[in-house]
Amino acid sequence: MYKIGIDLGGTKIEGILLDDSLNVIQRIRVLTPKNDYQGIVNEISYLVDQLSTNLPDFTLGVCTPGTISKKTGLLKNSNTQCLIGKSIKEDLENKLGKKISMENDANCFTLAEATMGAAKDFDLVFGVILGTGVGGGIVINKKLYPGRTNIAGEWGHHTLHHNGNPCYCGKMGCVETYISGPSLENQWKKLTGESKRIPEIIQNITNENGKKWKSEFMENFGYGLANVIDILDPDAIVLGGGLSNIDFLYTEGKESVYNKVFSDLVDTPILKNQLGDSAGVFGACII
Ligand SMILES: [Zn+2]
Q1: Which of 71, 154, 267, 272, by CA, is between 20 and 30 Å from 127?
Q2: Per-residue pLDDT, 8
């Protein structure tokens, strides 16, 4: 059976067609219409039509920013705001006349890396997105574990500091408010008065402010993931998102995690993703 996967991102929508052995047959990208829900639905359906030309049958999965609420069937927790509160799964199914599978980007990322990427040799995989937000997903023996209410793996909103930084979710002190890209950039600004992006910041962190910034980052990263290991004890953790390119996460970051786990033996591999930006679209094919 052919598989079509769609990755709906904030700036682009990517579609891919795979054959039975997961070989790439065709790949198309279009820009995401800005603040235009109907435009997004139309573009996705255009991509599916293009990719499915002359196919006898196929499965279709869509990777979305945000999660379909089990309570309402509507999309929630999305940084592509025009999608919030929309019945995107149902609208696409009606337009395409076909059942689709839909999962959030952290879950698609984890599924792809655990099946065909960096963590393919491990049974229980915890996938981490460290970027604009902080997300996570759990895959057990190549199957996604969404949890009773679809929130399994959402470590980004574990409380790290009681009464800490305010979070858009309504709580305070969430992991995401300390180690997402924007939070780390804010912290740099607080320390130095300068507005800089992460790649610039990490090029020059040997001075006092830089050391402070990095050591806080490593402490928060360490406590956040050590909590995950204490609960889940996964066979591997794989990192994705823009911040996963930071090399010291795999050395000092890993040490910081290990030092905080409740065990005399910690050897959980913390791996860099292999599929990069393509994890979402591959994951969508195999939901
Ligand atoms: Zn939160």
Answers
A1: 71
A2: 94
> Quick check: 13 and 32 in contact, CB under 8 A?
yes
Three-state secondary structure call for residue 251: coil
pLDDT value for 69: 87
| C-alpha 57 – ligand 1 centre gap (Å) | 41
| Sequential DSSP letters for 107-163 | HHHHHHHHHHSTTTT-SEEEEEEESSSEEEEEEETTEE---TTS-TT-GGGSBSSTT
Buried b (16+ CB within 10 A) or exposed e, 99-134: ebbbbbbbbbbbbbbbbbbbbeebebbbbbbbbbbb
Q: How far is the CA of 134 from the centre of ligand 1 (A)?
A: 9
Q: How far is the CA of 169 from the centre of ligand 1 (A)?
A: 4
Question: CA–CA separation, 154 vs 257, rounded Å?
Answer: 18
Coil, strand or helix at 188 = helix
pLDDT of 77 reads 80
User: Residue 44: which residues within 8 A CB-CB, separation 6 or more?
Assistant: 6, 8, 13, 15, 62, 92
CA distances from 257 to 16, 152, 160, 218, 262 (A): 36, 20, 14, 8, 10
For 157-192, write each residue's pLDDT tens digit: 999 999 999 998 899 999 999 999 999 999 999 999
Ligand 1 is an ion; its neighbours by CB within 5 Å are 157, 167, 169, 171, 174
The confidence score (pLDDT) of residue 132 equals 87
Q: What is the pLDDT of residue 138?
A: 98
Task: Mark the ranges of the chain whose per-residue pLDDT is less than 50.
Answer: none
